[in-house]
Amino acid sequence: MNTQHITLTREQADDFGRELDAIRERVIADLGQTDVDYIRRVIKAQRAMEIGGRALLFAGIFPPAWVAGTALLGISKILDNMEIGHNVMHGQYEWTGDPALRGRTFEWDTACPADQWRHSHNYSHHTFTNIVGMDRDIGYGILRMSPDQRWRPYYLGNPVYAFLLMVLFQYGVALHELETERIRSGEISLADKRDVLREIWHKTRRQLLKDYVAFPLLAGPMAPFVFTGNLTANLIRNVWSYAIIFCGHFPDGTQEFTVEETRNESRGQWYFRQVLGSANLTGGKLFHLLSGNLSHQIEHHLFPDVPARRYAEMAPHVREVCERYGIPYNAGPLPKQFATVVRKIVKLALPTRQRSEDATLVEAA
Description:
One of its GO terms (cellular component) is membrane. By secondary structure, this protein is an all-alpha fold. The chain has one domain (10-347). It contains 15 helices and two strands. The protein has helices at residues 10-30, 33-57, 63-89, 114-127, 158-167, 169-174, 180-185, 194-218, 223-249, 259-262, 267-276, 285-290, 297-302, 311-324, 334-347, and strands at 280-282, 331-333. A two-stranded parallel ribbon has the order 1-2. Helix 2 packs antiparallel against helix 3 (63-89), helix 3 (63-89) crosses helix 9 (223-249) and helix 8 crosses helix 9 (223-249).
């Protein structure tokens, strides 16, 4: 955890915001056919890998075919969820006018209904990033991921809940809009979420039938190999998505905030909060592609509607601005960041409270 005390005056925060706005405006002005061609190539590759993977699983009695088919299907699901679905639903390609890239109507290959995701993620999480009590991505209603979350004996199971969330991540995301923590506390009842639950069930049932009934039945005697291949591909996607997302939000150095700290914040202060609450992952081009470019989590939180392929070129400029303002720019390799996430999960299972004093959103007058 960075122990430097960071403050910005209101004027400094406004200047910081204007510099980041300028970075965004330069990239927006440069968007064009290259960006369209890129996402269409990714979609084409994803579909080819899904078809190839499912075809190979039909010959799954031969171990090399099963392994190759499972790997291709797993990668196709990762691309569909992260580089395509997540980014398209953020409206990153709305400017193209292509109906296939329209974020408001896009549906993805996962258990979470897209409309619910657009609310819980695009609006709630990206507006109230790391504000305890408002950003439900802090713990997903299951985990204690901030010392500002009041400890209860329930949290002794933090490591177990984290493991289950990792292997069942698509279902954890699907239940996000259900607000299970409010149901457990008695604030609302399950009946209040009847419509939400119905949408979740319809989408989840469709996914289950597709992967574990329809395709295995089509394979005839090869059904067990198709079933286990689909199960493993979903597991690969779940674990990978969990690791990328948690390492972008909860490693050492990221910070949470209170409602009071963020009240009446300016755009510059909002930008400041996004940087402090996010972390990047270092790696090569293939790694960034498979992460949906969420390896550039800082840039994604600053510019969620900018095509994610542009984050790599924006990152050095964002980092330079942060360094001039004395704002830490959190970046590191996946193994290192994930290790600190695991440590945090275990530590916060215990009744400790350590309110960070590393930064304030604006210097007191």
